[in-house]
Every structure is written in C-alpha cells, then in structure tokens.
Automatic annotation (TrEMBL):
It comes from Novosphingobium resinovorum. Keywords: Hydrolase, Plasmid. Residues 62-243 form the BD-FAE-like domain. InterPro entries: AB_hydrolase_fold (IPR029058), BD-FAE-like_dom (IPR049492), GDXG_lipolytic_enzyme (IPR050300). GO terms for molecular function: hydrolase activity. The keyword Oxidoreductase does not apply. This is Esterase.
Length: 309
C-alpha cells in the first residue's frame, strides 16, 4: 500500500556497497582501514534537499557545509557504482574532509540505469549543477567557483558533464558550466580497444551497455557521444585526474590531457601505487585524495586574480 504522496516502488540495485568492497580488498591491501569520520565545530550537513522532480519522484541532494573559514568554493560529487548501483552516502567521508578544508560539497541522487537509461542520469546531474548554481548564495558559494567531480562511473559522468555540458547536450549550457573537473578513476573514452575489452566484455549485459541502451556493436554512436574525450576542447575546465594506477579505469586520459595541454588548460594527473579501484572510500588513500583535490583547486585561484603579463 502506498501512502499519500509516496512515489511508486522502483527497482534498486544494492550490489555495490562499501562493506562488500572492504571484504574484497581486506586481504589484498595491507593497511586498508575504514575511515574515521570526525567533525569540527561549526560544520553542518543538510540531508535530502529535493532539487528536482522527475515526474514520478523527487531527487535529493545532501550539502556538507564548512565551519568558519569557508572559501566560497563548491564541489558537486557524483557517486559511482557501474551506472546502476551506489549511493550519495558513499561520498560522506570525502565530503567531510573537503568541508573541513573550507569547501561546500554537494552530493546528488540521480537516476541509475535500473530506473532510466542514458541520458537520464546525465540530465539529472546537469540539473543538480544548475540547482547548485541557483542556490549558491544560500550556501555562501560563488556560483562561478563550483567544480564537478565523481568516482568510477560517477567520474565518467562528471567528466562528460564538465566537457559536454556547456554545449547544452544535457540542458541549458550556461547553468551547466563547471569551474573545474575532478575525475577519480573514471573512464574518459569508452571506445578505445582497452576500454572496450572491459566495458563491452559482456555485450548487452555489460553495465555500460545497460546504461547506454546497447552494446558497442549496437550503439557505437552513443558510446562515442557518452565519451568525455569526444567533447574536450578549448572551453573545457581545468582538470584533475586521480588514478588508482589501474590503466583501464582512466582510459582516454592520454587524449584528454593532450587536448588540455594544446589549449593551455590547467591539468594534473596523479596515480597511486598499489591502490584499489575504490581508493576514495578507505584509509590510507582517502586523506590523500582530499589533499590532491584541495591542492589542485588552490592552484587555480592565483590564475583567476592575476593580471596579464
């Protein structure tokens, strides 16, 4: 029985959890540990703010607010889970560390492939970015200083939004422009031989195929369209790519970094050694991820205020 105002039941894939990954990695990575989330005085979190209605249900966003010393920068983080699973809660530990460094962090819910195929989820995160920009003053954030980022499939989505969003592919371009991109082990090109070896291995049953509405053999144009590397150009934002060191998860980075270099756009690539794919979830890698993000975004600030030589 549905209560008044409740949306109809929908399929949810809960196969990707932090506990499942910890059990998988525990014996492979000595020293791996659950992160201890501690709070500083003055921090606050706003849970489940509705930012959009899909026609059948509301989508929500969590906002991690810093204490005194906020830097007026926002970061929208898109969770991973093979485009069909995962949750915004997976970013709570990283969002907390970034908030302690002065950032306001936005964690959106979006439609996964078990509910709606591409480009629905992309439109959702584009709308989440637009909502964040529209509400920037409410959170004491400069709307021109909101970065987008994500991890694994969320990194792929964030990269695609950062590079293709301004063109209007997923909604009004002006509202979907990011100040910077942070890609944590997210594939940048679905169509390279290495990417296809993994992302298309199971044909129509591959997570990417389920999201994109067909295998590469049946939807090649869509696979290319959904590749961030197809859209990188002169208007692309400064980019940080953080890698586990496992090449398959950042396929396309060579093309992307070369294009950014050619256009004089700030970029940085950092790779861990002997790290799991989900490095942002666990100690000892989690604090270093926050350091990399903070360090990169800080390098962009002098460029904005400096006078031409």
């Amino acid at each position: 029985m549905l209560l008044p105002g409740h949306a109809p039941a929908r399929e949810v894939d809960d196969s990707y959890t932090i506990g499942q990954r910890f059990a998988q990695y525990r014996d492979k990575f000595p020293g791996i540990a659950w992160p201890a989330v501690t709070w500083k005085a003055g921090q606050s979190v706003l849970f489940d703010r509705p930012y959009k209605n899909t026609g059948t249900r509301d989508l929500h966003i969590d906002v991690f607010r810093p204490s005194a010393g906020a830097n007026r920068q926002g970061i929208l983080l898109v969770h991973g889970g093979g485009w069909r699973a995962g949750a915004k809660t997976h970013f709570y530990a990283l969002a907390n560390l970034l908030a302690q460094r002065g950032y306001t962090v936005f964690l959106p819910e979006f439609r996964l492939s078990v509910e709606a195929a591409y480009p629905a989820g992309m439109i959702d995160i584009g709308d989440a970015l637009a909502w964040t920009r529209a509400h920037a003053a409410e959170f004491d954030v400069d709307p021109a200083r909101i970065a987008v980022g994500g991890a694994s499939s969320g990194g792929q989505m964030a990269s695609l939004l950062a590079y293709a969003g301004p063109s209007g592919l997923f909604g009004s371009g002006t509202e979907r422009t990011a100040a910077a991109l942070i890609d944590l082990d997210g594939v940048l090109d679905f169509t390279t031989p290495q990417a296809l070896q993994f992302e298309n291995a199971a044909g129509e049953a591959s997570p990417a195929a389920r999201w994109l509405g067909g295998s590469y053999e049946h939807a090649a144009a869509r696979w290319k369209d959904a590749s961030a590397a197809s859209h990188v150009g002169a208007q692309s934002p400064p980019t940080l790519i953080v890698s586990s060191g496992i090449p398959r998860f950042t396929e396309g980075k060579t093309t992307v970094l070369a294009a950014l270099e050619r256009h004089g756009i700030a970029h940085r690539f950092f790779a861990f050694e002997n790290a799991p794919h989900d490095f942002w979830l666990f100690e000892p890698w989690l604090p270093r991820v926050a350091e990399q993000i903070d360090g990169f975004l800080k390098t962009l600030e002098p460029a904005r205020g400096s006078a031409p030589e």
